[in-house]
UniProtKB/TrEMBL annotation:
Name of one Pfam family that matches: Cupin_1
Signal peptide extent: 1-20
Name recorded for this polypeptide: Germin 2-1 isoform X1
UniProt binding sites for Mn(2+): 109, 111, 116, 162
Length: 417
């Protein structure tokens, strides 16, 4: 009884640690000091002197370069988290590029600290995730799978075991946002069968209910995972048990009878893979508007599976000299990858913009650290509110003639979203 209690307490504390989201920032940014330069260790990283911070601290180049997939799994993850991009420290988000050779696999793994929202840029991927153990021991862990094509978006909820398998004859490429500056990865096969020192054989024999002499190569077990996922990973998903729900797929506002912070959850028994899926992000947005740019959002309003998971995605298209005008996201940090390669961070709540200075169209994908980041376009909010802000207030705030304010208030302010 006492032992049982102890184990329960252990699992509960483990679970609450596992599910802790990144802490909210307490200042505009806290650019990470390199570990080698830090003299004390903290949760996250120590901040660089803000006076020494420059734009390069929020910048990472080269995500246009394919990862080398010449390895037994045929896949390669190129991470852009706080270890590569120090400006992400305290901001609760990061990005990866993943390359897959034909039949390449990103094997079953979890991110202990992050939800992942992925967009396919190239290729055909069979993806899936498995829920944590149900309360009823007679009910199995549920597998959700989907085949994805370019432009498709899929969500892997925080902490759940998931995989991607390139089922096409060509290479595949994805970009994915993750809701932590340092999501962590636990590859199930490596953690269970490849730990140092190895886990006691009796423990694994009993856990997997196989003969102690059965030789299971890491690749062998991976194939088994893809074909029959929950039987094999059950012992590992013990760690993910207990705690909050795996997901809370949003009910459409029109179907909800009460209003809450976020959205009401759909009946979990009615949830399917399509609730975590959004197609069509390969289609360019229509930039024929006064600003020459178009944001295509994939947040909880388009993809109900994102509810409670603290992340979303956008595609932004820019015509030549197109502008995404100065704006803020009141609830999110944004980490943006220009499809041609560079990454940049816009810290939570700060005013930012993007301007296409090239002669050709531009495309970016960006992860945002909220299911519903919100947008406040500065010009629209200040000069285009309904009803208008009192002219005297704006005249004094901007220290210009009242006629200038009236002129600005008379403009039609194009709403980027
Ligand atoms: C890719 O990795 C393999 C195996 O490590 C190596 O032999 C090969 O040279 C690498 N290719 C490139 C282009 O770096
Ligand atoms: C793009 O938007 C413009 C202006 O609203 C419209 O005239 C045009 O037909 C649209 N183009 C496409 C391809 O939808």
């Amino acid at each position: 009884m006492a032992v049982h209690l102890l184990i329960s307490v252990l699992i509960i504390s483990l679970a609450s640690f596992t599910y802790a989201s990144d802490p909210a920032p307490l200042q505009d940014f806290c650019v990470a000091v390199k570990d080698a330069e830090a003299k004390v260790f903290v949760n996250g990283k120590i901040c660089k002197d803000p006076n020494m911070v420059s734009a390069n601290d929020f910048f990472f180049p080269g995500l246009n370069v394919p990862g080398n997939t010449s390895n037994p799994l045929g896949s390669k993850v190129t991470p852009v988290n706080v270890n590569q991009l120090p400006g992400l420290n305290t901001l609760g988000i990061s990005l990866v590029r993943i390359d897959y050779a034909p039949y390449g696999l990103n094997p079953p793994h979890t991110h202990p600290r992050a939800t992942e929202v992925l967009v396919v840029v190239e290729g055909t991927l069979y993806v899936g995730f498995v829920t944590s153990n149900p309360a009823d021991p007679n009910v199995k862990n549920k597998l959700f799978t989907k085949t994805l094509y370019p432009g498709d978006v899929f969500v892997f909820p925080e902490g759940l075991i998931h995989f991607q398998f390139n089922v096409g004859k060509t290479n595949a490429v994805v970009f994915a946002g993750l809701s932590s500056q340092n999501p962590g990865v636990i590859t199930i096969a490596n953690a269970v069968f490849g730990s140092d020192p190895p886990i006691n054989i009796d423990v694994l024999t009993k856990a997997f209910q196989v003969d102690a002499n059965l030789k299971i190569t890491p690749c062998g077990i991976l194939i088994v995972y893809v074909l029959d996922i929950y039987v094999e990973i059950e012992p590992c998903s013990l760690l993910l048990m207990i705690g909050m729900a795996d997901f809370c797929v949003a009910l459409k506002d029109a179907e909800a009878k009460v209003f809450v912070n976020g959205k009401i959850c759909k009946d979990p028994n009615m949830v399917s893979a399509n609730d975590f899926f959004f197609p069509g992000l390969n289609v360019p947005g229509n930039t024929s508007n006064p600003l020459g740019s178009k944001v295509t959002p994939v947040n909880v309003n388009q993809l109900p599976g994102l509810n409670t998971l603290g992340i979303s995605l956008v595609r932004i298209d820019y015509a030549p000299y197109g502008l995404n005008p100065p704006h803020t996201h009141p609830r999110a940090t944004e980490v943006l990858v220009v499809v041609k390669g560079d990454v940049f961070v816009f810290p939570e709540g700060l005013i930012h913009f993007q301007f296409n200075v090239g002669k050709t169209n531009a495309v970016v994908f960006a992860g945002l650290s909220s299911q519903n980041p919100g947008v406040i376009t500065i010009a629209n909010a200040v000069f285009g509110s309904d009803p208008p802000i009192n002219v005297d207030v704006l005249t004094k705030a901007f220290q210009v003639d009242a006629n200038v304010i009236k002129y600005l208030q008379g403009q039609f302010w194009w709403n980027i979203d």
